[in-house]
Amino acid sequence: xxxxxxxxxxxxxGAGVIEAIETKEILGKVKQYYVLRMPIxxxxxxxxxxxxxxxx
Length: 56
Fold this sequence. Notes:
Layout: E1 7-10, E2 14-26, E3 29-38, E4 43-48
Antiparallel strand pairs: 1-2, 2-3, 3-4
């Protein structure tokens, strides 16, 4: 499991930093998400912790 501050590479978006780990309810399902801050384009990406291995 990654932690806040870890640097990661996300396919198609490039390198970023894990800014937070948040719990969200989406479509009635509660999941934990990594919140990545991508410096290029000042973009934020949320990836479900349970599927992080599928992202590459």
